[in-house]
Specification:
The complex is a heterodimer of chains A (about 375) and B (about 130).
Chain A: H1 6-56, H2 64-70, H3 77-88, H4 94-105, H5 108-115, H6 121-134, H7 140-146, H8 152-165, H9 171-176, H10 190-200, H11 205-211, H12 217-229, H13 236-245, H14 249-262, H15 268-273, H16 281-294, H17 300-306, H18 312-323, H19 327-337, H20 341-364
Helix pairs in contact in A: 1-2, 1-3, 3-4, 5-6, 6-8, 7-8, 8-10, 10-12, 11-12, 12-14, 13-14, 14-16, 16-18, 17-18, 18-19, 18-20, 19-20
Chain B: E1 8-12, H1 16-28, E2 32-36, H2 39-48, E3 53-57, H3 65-74, E4 82-87, H4 92-101, E5 105-108, H5 113-123
Parallel strand pairs in B: 1-2, 1-3, 3-4, 4-5
Helix pairs in contact in B: 1-5, 2-3
The chains are: A mainly alpha (about 375), B alpha/beta (about 130).
């Protein structure tokens, strides 16, 4: 053991304590500053607060309140913009158009477009968010350029903004943005890109189907995920090919998950093949889960076989999937539960879980 | 049928914008509205005077909307209260949780204020 002098320990303790106190003070000061700023905004906007509420609530049939908000003096412009942006994210329907018109009237969109090239990260990200909320396809090229931004935060905001605009012409760019950077990390996280693509709807189908063949596994995985959400039936053949032959097991698992959601009885053999002992652990478990989601009785023998697998998580997932196959799956589970060994125990647990779940559901009903 | 101005509604949401918006819209529709920024205050208000309906945000500091709903359904005096959950939690499992806890309706944010009024009317058994 290395000897440590009491003086050094005391010094380290004092430094730690001082750091904690400093952090606590910083937190308090930041919170007070934010609260004061919000109160100040509230005070300044008080005269038009009711007009803003009326517009956001859709209670301005003759446009009188809207005119009052258009007439807000330039010195209150930024405060009004902050309040309007906050409300746009909370309501939907016709009031959103009126709130957007306030931003346009006060040239917030023009300012935002200029700020997209700001040297600071926060103004660029805020500008991208505002342009996304406005939902005007005219800003799509600017937002697509931002997918190449050096800041990860800005790229994420830009992808979300493109999803909010919902223009499918940006789909290919969003998919490309998932490709790994030089550091091996995706430039835009897969979940963010997938959400944006789903928001673009069926118009994004062609780009998504093409991306199933992309050289980057991250892009193929996102495309596979989106496919199941977008009801892209024409892409089912590519999904099956990904499940069977893609070199990346993560992509194959993504394809298995998608097939579980949108596939049919013909997909049972391919999913069962993906549960083979020679396959990657994650793929085997996902495929077993997908068989339950698919809900076809043809999967029963294969899933029963997996109850005795050495991977106990796989056995557990297989038991749950059998429970989702209705009477054929439940009968097989009950029969297996009478046996001994690993398979019997896994089946017994699955039967108990199923009974518990059904009991709870019935009790709730 | 009861006139709207005799119908009492409690609104609880920690987001001031949403609280103000819901209060404004329901007041414009003629309802009497009491609004609160957290679940505990809303629960106190429910016990003090039982309203006809409560619009509860799910994610609030302290007592969540689901917590309040659970108490409402377990207390004899509060159990008849009609409750609409207004929340950003939009997954199927969240909606299931809301209804299985005893919500009469579930509205997802961002929401349409006009639609909310229709939902309130429907839950109260009125034609809007």
């Amino acid at each position: 053991m290395i000897p440590v002098s009491p003086a050094l320990l005391a010094g380290v303790g004092i430094v730690l304590l001082a750091s904690c106190v400093g952090l606590a003070l910083l937190t308090v000061v930041t919170k007070v500053h934010r609260a004061r700023r919000a109160a100040s905004r509230e005070r300044q906007l008080a005269p038009v607060r009711m007009a803003l509420m009326a517009v956001a609530a859709g209670e301005d049939p003759d446009g009188v309140q809207l005119e009052q908000l258009y007439a807000v003096p330039p010195r209150l412009r930024d405060e009004l913009q902050t309040a309007v942006v906050a409300l746009i994210t909370k309501v939907r329907g016709a009031p959103v158009d009126d709130l957007v018109s306030i931003l346009r009237h006060h040239e917030a969109t023009n300012r935002a477009e200029r700020r997209l090239t700001s040297r600071r990260v926060v103004p660029r990200a805020r500008a991208a968010r505002l342009l996304g909320l406005v939902g005007d396809t005219a800003y799509v090229p600017s937002l697509v350029r931002l997918l190449e931004d050096p800041s990860a935060e800005v790229r994420i905001v830009a992808a979300r903004a493109l999803g909010a605009v919902g223009d499918p012409r940006a789909a290919a760019a969003v998919l490309r943005s998932v490709r790994s950077s030089d550091q091996g990390r995706p430039r835009v996280p897969a979940t963010v890109a997938a959400d944006a693509l789903i928001a673009m709807g069926l118009g994004a189908a062609a780009a998504v189907v093409e991306a199933l063949e992309d050289r980057d596994p991250g892009v193929r995985n996102v495309a596979a995920t989106v496919t199941s959400h977008s009801l892209l039936r024409p892409a089912a053949a590519q999904l099956r090919r990904l499940l069977g032959t893609d070199p990346d097991p993560v992509v194959r698992a993504g394809a298995a998950r998608a097939i579980g959601r949108m596939g049919g009885p013909d997909d049972v053999p391919a999913l069962l093949a993906a549960t083979a002992a020679s396959e990657a652990v994650g793929l085997r478990r996902t495929a077993a889960q997908a068989l339950g989601e698919l809900g076809h009785r043809g999967a029963v023998p294969g899933l029963v076989h997996l109850l005795g697998d050495g991977d106990r998580r796989l056995a557990e997932v297989s038991g749950q999937s059998l429970g989702r196959l209705g009477p054929p799956g439940l009968d097989a589970l009950r029969t297996a539960a009478e046996g001994a060994g690993l398979a019997g125990r896994a089946a017994h647990t699955a039967v108990a879980l199923h009974a518990l779940r059904t009991g709870v559901e019935e009790a709730v009903r | 049928m009861t006139a709207p101005d005799q119908i009492d509604i409690v609104v609880a949401d920690d987001d001031e914008d949403i609280r103000s918006l819901v209060e404004f819209k329901l007041s414009q529709a003629g309802y009497r509205v009491r609004s609160f920024a957290d679940g505990a205050s809303a629960l106190d208000a429910l016990r003090e005077r039982l309203p006809d309906l409560a619009v509860l945000d799910v994610m609030m500091p302290g007592l969540s909307g689901i917590d309040v709903l659970r108490v409402v359904r377990s207390e004899k005096g509060l159990a008849p209260l009609k409750v609409i959950l207004l929340t950003a939690r939009s997954r199927d499992s969240d909606v299931d949780d809301g209804f299985s806890t005893g919500a009469n309706d579930y509205v997802i944010k961002p929401f349409s204020p006009r639609e909310l009024v229709h939902r309130v009317s429907a839950v109260l058994g009125r034609t809007s």
